[in-house]
Amino acid sequence: MTLGAVDPFELEIYRQRLIAITDECWATAHRTAFSPIITEALDLACEILDLRGRAVAHATRSIPSFTTALPAVTKDILARFSRDGIVDGDVFLTNDPWSCAGHLPDPALVAPVFHRGRLVAFCGVIGHASDMGGTLRRAEARDLYEEGFQIPLVRLHSAGRPDPVLVELIRANIREPEVFLGDLDAQINAAHTMRRRLAEFLEEYALADLEELSDVLQDASERAMRRAVADLPDGIYAAATELDGIGDAPLALRVEIAVRGHELEVTFPDCPPQLPFGGVNSTLSYTRSHTLYVLHCVLGPEIIANDGCYRPFTVRAPEGSILNCRRPASVGLRMLTGWHVHPLILSALSQVVPERVMAPGGTMSWAEIFGTRADGAPFHDHLVIGAGLGGTAARDGISGSSYPSSAASVPLEVIEARAPVIVERKALIPGSGGAGRMRGGLGQQVVLRPLPEAARDLHVSLSLDHRRVPAQGLFGGGPGRTASLRIRRADGRTEVVGGGYVALVGDAVAEGGVVIELSGGGGYGDPQRRDPAARERDRREGLVAD
Amino acid sequence: MTDRVAIGVDIGGTFTDFLLWDPPRGSVALHKVLTDPADPAGAVLRGLDELLGASDVGLGEVEIFAHATTLASNAIIERKGAPTGLLTTLGHRDVLVLGTEQPYDIYDLLIEFPVPLVPRRLTREIHERTTSDGRILRPVDREEVLDAVGSLLAGGVEALAICFLHAYREPGNEAAAAAAIRAAFPDLALSLSSEVSPEIREYERASTTVANAYIKALVGRYLGDLERRLRERGLRGGFHVMLSSGGMAGIDTARAFPVRMVESGPAAGVLAARYHGLLVGEPNVLSFDMGGTTAKVCLVRDGEAASTSRMEVARIRRFKPGSGLPLRTPAVDLIEVGAGGGSLAHVDGTGRLRVGPDSAGADPGPACYGRGGSRPTVTDACLVLGYFDADSFLGGEMRLDREAAHRAVQEHVADAFGLGVPAAAWGIYSLVVEQMAAAARVHAAERAADPRRCALLAFGGAGPACAYRVATVLRIPRVLVPPGAGVGSAFGLLVAPLSFDLSRSRLERLDAADWPAVLALVDEMTERATGQLREAGVPAERVRVALAADMSLVGQSYEVAVHLSRDAVAAGDVAAIEAAFQQVYEGRYGRRGHGFPIQVLTWRVRAVESTGVHGALAEVQARALARPGDARIGVRDAYFPEAGGYASCAVFDRYRLLPGSVLEGPAILEERESTTVVGPGARLEVDAYRNLVIQAPAPETPRAATMTPTGVSR
């Protein structure tokens, strides 16, 4: 069949079918994975890519920045191995932050999909790793070598057979390697599912591969996105923000968005140079992923995500800067920098589409909880904690949200069943949302301590954004509350911790704990114009400080 | 229960349906009245008077009164429940507000979340704590609990939910708090998480418990009132309520756990499909129920409807998973799609044709209803395609406006693409078909079932019009359209066995399980579940118990339900239990789970009344619907791509077709509440129960060749 004759109705059917296939692959990986960062937090993406390595469709619940990273990995595979060098049963793996998702613990697994002996597509999956070796004192890492086990683009499986050397290396370098390998296995299950479903799809419609269909689908999304860009007045829209950084002074970031017709160029001029330690450098691939993501959200959330969507966009950041760092910079906490493209771009675009943006928000975090049980067994789990988002033209900011990661929180009952901890408190912080006509969402406080007698030692490692610089308001709205981290000692004293890492040793702090406070979102619009009924509701519900 | 005099009453959004089954006299009577949202029980009694008045049966003779209602779900959706308070563990009052903390649409910055059923100000924290392995670190303090409840009552609370951390494992603190509260405030309606939904994951458990508390008084009042009025009129038989799980429960269970009846109507529909399938020797069916706004699909395999313990109600973004309130209660696992006869079609800002999930509803309804609707719906497309007839819709009671349908399709779809109206109508129709097929495909695939090995069983107002095409897309060879599609759920009420489900989370590795303790738990659950059935009047010898465990590899969070024997548990036969797990796991995911120990998360017990499948009800219903006269009532042009466009098509009155009749497609078969469309080349037979049994032509080659008869280019 040739697609020259495809009508728009058939096209819609194909499009929905391909999304349904990715959804099923995603569900397979989700349900057969082991690490709660995938099974509960859903830190997972799944995508179909065509023979040129371009995204065709991704699973509805994918982590957005992953879906824009998978094409780069697939294009690398094609460049390195060529189509002819790829055989059925191959599985490729890499965690290279420069081509992939920006830090080592987000490895990409890409498997070719064969049908009737021909390569017809690729299945790409990224799932957050339970562990990637290296230091868990992420804020202290000086380079990539300290941050963990690097997997350059290699074959995990060749023609269906696992590479025993690679598996041995993984076992030697990664904590609890069974969990990591089990999660990779779950991702391979997803590729198997895609193979079955794509075969049915291609048979049903007598397609040899996805190439022509992919062009049509991508062109449709491209046209829609170009129309959305063209609807913006031409011009240059700029914004500036500050972020915590790792030294004594905040760092400044700027953006310039140049809209010319149906093209849009995002530049981050005068970026601070990359930092020598601390993990807060963002690779260009990660900067680009989040830039594309937030542009998609503002300009056309209804446009089907694929390669075409992003063709009207160009992203530039100076090489050697914190938004485009060079190897082997430390990148473990790259979201502390990379996520700031969201408030920058939202603020810049608020000048033209104020009703489609939200004010800058607080930043979610995840606490890595690890150590040794009383019986000597190790544990390592992730507690995902959402922050308050910024207000929008139509509503208050959401309290407790993982945007822009889009992960889900891990139930405390699941955490406590896995790790010897007690989460004493997980609650909103009244008054932490920025004032505004539409108030910022609230940050939250989490208090956790070792479960007496169950933990030999317990460590908490987490990165906290907005410790120093709060999320700003928009259109006169106030800033959200900042984040903080304290250790509570047995005698009741608390110590403020400056960095992003805390160690708690069971005996010494048997009744102590860590107090984590996440930031609130910025307000939207003049607080004087807030609806009195909304004020009254906030007071009644205890959402504002007394 | 098809051997006793029974009445099924299903309250739906628009109609309340009645079905009376009188085995001694061998008669069936159907009735329908408009639902009265203000006094649903009043409408039931009125309809009942009319139904019984026209029959020879007195209410005193009725042995079973079986009921399904949308009351519970509507009360949640419309926020009509009681002001509810919540007691949580100290430090965790925001469990409902925080939810999953995940955006349910990754690209939409402006999404909203549902407001919790209990506001923050009506949540109180109690200083108590239990650990994940069931140790009580700190017991509840009676005075503190009473102070908290007292302040909630002063704040206007009329119902109370208690959800403490790890109460699924150790309910002691919840029970102690409840005992103190009952002693001090005997009239306060209480719901405990350890009773309503004793499963791990605090947000889902709290959400379920709160929903139960929220509707408890309303549902209790309604059921109590209805039962009292029925008893006053002489009902002596049992009063049973359909639960979301497809089980039938006594009124006490329904009043204690109303959250379990949120999907009672749809569950009854699935049971009707299951029954019709079994009756004609098809234990594997895809139940396909398409109405005005939604389509529901459910896999029935080996005579068992798929079940789940995760569902969601009151989604604020229609059909978007994650945008509603999660409920963890046993439910028939149906997938619901925003695709019905009233689903609106339009071309969106990005140039894509969209159908649904928005619906024209009953008012204004489709453009062809002539009540002011101007946007095209699936019903309008069916009219343009010739599948519906302007004069015989709803038995001719409602004349459809063909011009209006044509105009709506033209202005809103055809012109946008530069296409002809028939091609656009076919586009709308085939897109909605594909959406339902896609949902069905995923639903079946996730349960390791191949739709091609099932029969498609269609009912609901719009189901029969789309079923043949849905089956074609899914390559399902056989479609079954049972008679009486309009009262499917009421029918299901009469063929449902009584049953009761219980579940308890108890996380344990197989290689380290305390089997005597597990056996004690299972036996205790069995005793409770079978006790419920005996109370409902089921003789002990007819009670069957099914035991299942939700199992996974250690470290996974998603479980598969594995049927196990009590013997295996009693013997601690780990090898047999492991083998049963691996079989289910491999069936679902294509590969065995290896390299990890296996664990059980939740034990489930279902007590069910064992009944055979009796054809009598279906036979008698078929007879009751039969009408005399020439079955072929006309000919009209209808659009079939296989025929190259519009082709002349015979039209039949389905209840004039005698059992054994055989037809060749294309054909259109009309009945009052629905129309069955059969494509060219298909073979249709009317069986002894007056089911329409449609056999697809041999699967042909690629569908694409048949999809664009007009050769439209993009």
Extended strand count of chain B: 35
The helix content of chain B is 25-40%
Large-scale geometry of chain B: globular
Number of helices of chain A: 13
Instruction: Write down the overall mean pLDDT of chain A.
Output: 92
**Gap from first CA to last CA of chain B:** 56 Å
Q: Which two chains touch over the largest interface?
A: A-B, 103 and 82 residues
Which structural class do you get from the secondary structure elements of chain A? alpha+beta
Strands of the biggest beta sheet of chain A: in what spatial order? Answer: 2-1-5-4-3-6-7
Share in β-strands of chain B: 25-35%
Query: Low-confidence parts of chain B lasting 5 or more residues at pLDDT below 50?
Result: 701-714
Question: What is the strand and helix layout of this fold?
Answer:
The complex is a heterodimer of chains A (546) and B (714).
Chain A: H1 8-32, H2 36-39, E1 44-49, E2 55-58, H3 64-67, H4 70-81, E3 91-94, E4 108-115, E5 118-127, H5 144-147, E6 154-158, E7 161-162, H6 164-173, H7 177-205, H8 211-230, E8 235-243, E9 251-260, E10 263-267, H9 284-299, E11 313-316, H10 335-338, H11 341-349, E12 365-373, E13 378-385, H12 412-418, E14 421-428, E15 444-450, E16 455-461, E17 484-488, E18 494-496, E19 501-504, E20 513-517, H13 532-540
Parallel strand pairs in A: 10-11
Antiparallel strand pairs in A: 1-2, 1-5, 3-4, 3-6, 4-5, 6-7, 8-9, 9-10, 12-13, 12-16, 14-15, 15-20, 16-19, 17-18, 17-20
Helix pairs in contact in A: 1-7, 9-11
Chain B: E1 6-11, E2 15-22, E3 27-34, H1 40-53, E4 64-69, H2 71-77, E5 84-89, H3 95-98, E6 123-126, E7 129-130, E8 136-138, H4 142-154, E9 159-163, H5 172-184, E10 189-192, H6 193-196, H7 202-232, E11 238-242, E12 248-250, H8 251-256, H9 264-279, E13 285-290, E14 295-301, E15 304-305, E16 307-308, E17 311-313, E18 325-327, E19 331-332, E20 335-337, E21 343-347, E22 353-359, H10 378-384, H11 402-417, H12 421-446, E23 455-459, H13 463-474, E24 478-481, H14 488-495, E25 499-509, H15 515-535, E26 543-553, E27 560-564, H16 566-571, H17 574-589, E28 598-609, H18 616-625, E29 632-640, E30 645-653, E31 662-664, E32 667-670, E33 675-678, E34 683-686, E35 692-695, H19 704-707
Parallel strand pairs in B: 1-4, 4-11, 5-6, 5-9, 9-10, 13-23, 23-24, 30-32
Antiparallel strand pairs in B: 1-2, 2-3, 7-8, 11-12, 13-14, 14-15, 14-20, 16-19, 17-18, 21-22, 24-35, 25-28, 26-27, 26-28, 29-30, 31-34, 32-33, 34-35
Helix pairs in contact in B: 1-7, 2-7, 4-5, 9-14, 10-11, 10-12, 11-12, 12-13
